[in-house]
Each structure stands twice: as C-alpha cells, then as structure tokens.
Amino acid sequence: MKKVLRVYGGVLRLVRLLPADTRPYYAKFARENFVNYREVDVSETSLDELYQRAYTHSLWVLKKYSIDESAAKKMKEICFE
Fold it and tell me: In terms of domain of life, where is this protein from (predicted)?
C-alpha cells in the first residue's frame, strides 16, 4: 500500500510540471485511476503492471506538453524498485 501512495504522489508531482490550465484535469484523472485500481482483481492484473502503466502514461503526458522525460526519473525509481 505504501508503494501505491508513493506512485500516486509521484504522479501528482509530475502534474505540477504541466501547464496551469491542464493541471486540474490530470490531477482528477490520476485520482480517479488510482481509486479504480483499488477495485482491480490482483489475480488477473499484477501491481507491477499497474505501476508500469502509471509510469508509461505519465511519460506520454510529459511528452505531449514537451516536458523533459528526466522529470519522471524519481517516479521510475519508485515504480521499478
């Protein structure tokens, strides 16, 4: 559970790097996704797969707004430790 909260915090830190007018949308999107992850059947989907998905999606959003991927370095460390 602690790792999940660290990943969520990492996503929210990355949201702060986005343009101001997009932050509320992505913060809400992240919150809804992490709430939905609580309902995922762990026997069908591993937590590592969900961490990979969160990291990959974060990179996509950063690239979309031309933010250097190195900003996600700490999140990568959390997701793949």
Answer: Eukaryota
